[in-house]
């Protein structure tokens, strides 16, 4: 947008643009008479046919420094805001902007005007919204992280698997998918070897053997379930680690990998060769 300004010395008229005035801070130099003047204060106003009640009076047009003429000219340009004053102040926005450089010597930065193509591209980028694939991708990532969090809770708290069949099913499916060993699968590699049934001196039944851990990591000591059958009689008994471990091993809670642990337990039941004994490992 171009404006016309008039040199106050030689009355020459020049065309100036708003960016030029911004960079030069309103000050220009006349090439004919080398007069430096404020182009904003000497803008040439277009001839506008106004109604008789709005046209400036003759004494307003003759008075060069008349304040009423400035207000009339600003109203024609639609710049009434430049004539507004703050309460208890004689300085309006028009004079403040023209004299700003006298009080502040900071540089004025002017950004180059963007081309219509660049403006359309920036407007398109601002209006561009994430597509369905964006939300789908982040939805899958968040859901996977949630499942991983649930899996870790069940992995470090195996007692929760016994309380909920749904969580046990989810845990087994997840382990089958990523090919990991569940706690039940690890205890299947804990075997009882050299199982013996003997009679004590007081005619009681003594059961002994060796626990062998074939896992690559240690396991918590299990409970032993002893099943006794004779004809139609059926008896069961659960034995804790404190009962079957040797006195030298008391206080140990885990069985190392590839390491045999001997156990021995005496039942108060009278020894009878007709009884059939079976021992099972029950994970804690």
Helix and strand topology:
Elements: E1 2-6, E2 13-17, H1 18-24, E3 27-29, E4 36-38, H2 58-62, H3 67-76, H4 93-98, H5 100-103, H6 116-127, H7 132-156, H8 159-163, H9 165-178, H10 183-187, E5 190-199, E6 204-213, E7 219-220, E8 223-230, E9 233-239, H11 241-244, E10 254-255, E11 260-270, E12 276-282
Antiparallel strand pairs: 1-2, 3-4, 5-6, 6-11, 7-10, 8-9, 8-12
Protein name: DUF3426 domain-containing protein
Keywords: Membrane, Transmembrane, Transmembrane helix
Organism: Acinetobacter rudis
Task: Please tell me about this protein's structure.
Helix content is 34%, strand content 26%. It has 284 residues and is α+β, with helices and mostly antiparallel strands. It has 3 domains: 2-103, no CATH class; 132-180, no CATH class; 186-282, Lipoprotein YajI-like (Immunoglobulin-like, Sandwich). The strands form 5 sheets. A 3-stranded antiparallel β-sheet has the order 5-6-11, with no helix packed on it. It is rod-shaped. The two termini are 86 Å apart.
């Amino acid at each position: 947008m171009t404006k016309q300004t008039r040199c106050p010395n030689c009355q020459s008229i020049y065309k100036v643009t708003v960016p030029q005035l911004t960079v030069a801070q309103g000050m220009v130099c006349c090439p004919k008479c080398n007069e430096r003047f404020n182009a904003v204060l000497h803008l040439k106003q277009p001839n506008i046919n106004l109604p008789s009640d709005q046209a400036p009076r003759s004494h307003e047009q003759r008075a060069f420094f008349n304040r009423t003429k400035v207000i009339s000219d600003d109203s024609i340009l639609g710049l009434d805001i430049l004539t507004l004053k703050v309460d208890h102040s004689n300085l309006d926005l028009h004079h403040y902007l023209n004299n700003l450089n006298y009080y502040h010597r900071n540089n004025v930065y002017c950004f180059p005007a963007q081309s219509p193509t660049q403006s359309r591209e920036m407007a398109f980028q601002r209006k561009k919204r994430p597509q369905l694939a964006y939300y789908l991708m982040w939805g899958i990532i968040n859901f996977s992280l949630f499942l991983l969090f649930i899996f870790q809770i069940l992995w470090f708290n195996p007692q929760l698997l016994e309380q909920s069949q749904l969580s046990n099913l989810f845990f087994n499916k997840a382990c089958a998918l990523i090919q990991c060993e569940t706690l039940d699968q690890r205890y299947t590699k804990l075997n009882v070897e050299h199982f013996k049934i003997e009679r004590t001196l007081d005619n009681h039944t003594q059961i002994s053997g060796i626990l062998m851990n074939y896992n690559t990591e240690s396991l918590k000591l299990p409970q032993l379930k002893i099943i006794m059958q004779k004809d139609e009689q059926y008896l069961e008994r659960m034995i804790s680690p404190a009962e079957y471990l040797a006195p030298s091993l008391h206080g140990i809670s885990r069985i190392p990998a590839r390491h045999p642990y001997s156990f021995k337990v005496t039942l108060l039941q009278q020894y009878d060769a007709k009884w059939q004994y079976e021992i099972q490992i029950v994970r804690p």
